[in-house]
Records
---
Amino acid sequence: AVETGTGTIKRSHAEGLINEEVERARRYSRSATLVMMGPDDWEEIVNQRGAEAAEHLIAEVARSYIENVRSIDRIIHLNGPDFGALLPETNLEGAQVVAEKLCAAASELFGTQVRAGVAAFPEDDVTGQGLISEAEEALSFGRIAQITVASRSLLT
């Protein structure tokens, strides 16, 4: 379930992991959050540095994400330069702090702004798929509105 190049959870295993965490949070009346992160101007980075250097950069950013979260948190490689962070036992406010830290570290490595979308259980949705959709929507909104860390609480 772990990618060799990045040391992160493969996307194909992510949904099951997120569903599992949502079930655990529901059963024990706990919080859980999902953060989705990605850089602005990825195409430009690839054009400037080349595809091979861009691949190395993705692996470097993945290591940075892993180093900046707790051992119980899971970093998921979503697609290209985009990653997710599954944060058990973490409420929305805590996730926003983590997301800001991850975005700052990754922005430095990418050389461009990294944005994040945050979705919390049970505030934003009560299903794994719902959290994924909410986090994706928040990330899209953040990119459009030029907000570093966006969440439904900012959308409403």
Note: The chain is about 55% helix and 20% strand.
---
Amino acid sequence: FAVEAPIKWKADLTGYEPALVESYEWSDDGKTFTMNMRPGLKWSDGQPYTSADWDFWWNDLNNAPDQKIYNIPAYLRNADGTPIEVTTPDEYTVVWTSKDRPLNIDPYFMAQGFWEFARWIMKPAHYLKQFHPDYTEGMAWEDMEAADKWWQTPGYPCLFAWCLTELSEDGQIYTFGRNPYYW
């Protein structure tokens, strides 16, 4: 259930296809990868899923200078180890740009679902800002870390068909409910 990603494996495993994104493409030199998101997609709480969520993930989490929780994966780095550039030119476009190497294989890491997209990139900005020290007075990065666990936090907005709705006090029983906004 936790494999929803922008790009996914085809059902016959012969390659990849768009999922949460409507389309994607590379520049001729392979150094720029552009995703065109599906307009109208929503988080499980009904809020729109847009490039603002990607911007929050990239700028307010991964590249926040005073945090030690979020890491930029190797596939989102230039050959010299510096982060690539991730921009959101409009509400439904996300662009990855490398300064010195092609990104031809990089987007497919997201197709693995849980580890590369759901765990590290699926960040509902509207929800997480209430725990972010730059947006909410009195919050610290430890609060952000504790709250940013969709697999342990009932009510954490997700993009999956099923989202965590209840967790037993002992943490042994997980209850997932249907996402009424699943695309």
Note: The helical segments are 51-62, 114-118, 125-128, 141-147.
